[in-house]
Structures are given as structure tokens and as C-alpha cells.
Amino acid sequence: MEEKRKAKIIFNKSGDKNKSTVNRVTLPVPWVRELGITEDDREVQISIENKKIIIEKL
Predict the structure, then answer these.
(1) Cα(10)–Cα(4) distance, rounded to whole angstroms?
(2) Cα(51)–Cα(47) distance, integer angstroms
(3) What's this model's pTM, rounded to 2 decimal places?
(4) 14-58 pLDDT per residue, tens
(5) Residue 15: per-residue pLDDT
(6) Do 10 and 24 contact (CB within 8 A), yes or no?
(7) Secondary structure of the chain: what % helix, strand, coil (to 5)?
(8) At 31, is the secondary structure helix, strand, or coil?
(9) Which superkingdom heads the taxonomic lineage of this protein's source (predicted)?
(10) What pLDDT score does 30 carry?
């Protein structure tokens, strides 16, 4: 499967004293299914190479 989609990064500030920021991006359900990720088996490895984020199912 090769597909590209435009997405936006979500920025959330935590409620703690440090006011740290958490970033998230939503993945399309078909992509998650393609990787075989389920609610019961959802462990992934994330890495960054050459300015690209890579998500792989463990």
C-alpha cells in the first residue's frame, strides 16, 4: 500500500507545573490495519531517519 495524506500535528499543553507540550498526529484506520496493529497488540517502534518519522509494528 502506498498512499499519502495531508495531516496536522496536534499540540497539547499538559496540566503540570512545567507546562510541557505533547504532540500527536492521527493515523488513518486503514494504515493501522495494514500494519496489523490492534487494541490488544499495539506496540510499535518509532524512529527518525533523514528527517522522516518511521512507525513499525513490533
Answers:
(1) 19
(2) 10
(3) 0.78
(4) 777 777 899 999 999 999 999 999 999 999 999 999 999 999 999
(5) 77
(6) yes
(7) 10, 35, 55
(8) helix
(9) Bacteria
(10) 96
Rg of the Cα trace of the chain? 14
How far is Cα 21 from Cα 17, in angstroms, rounded to an integer? 12
Strands (E), 1-58: 10-13, 21-24, 44-49, 52-57
Grid cell in block for residue 34: 495494514
Query: 21: which 3 cell numbers?
Result: 507540550
54: left (phi over 0), alpha (psi -120 to 50) or beta: beta
- Looking at residue 22, its amino acid is V
32: three-class secondary structure by DSSP: helix
Quote the distance between the C-alpha of residue 57 and its chain's center.
12
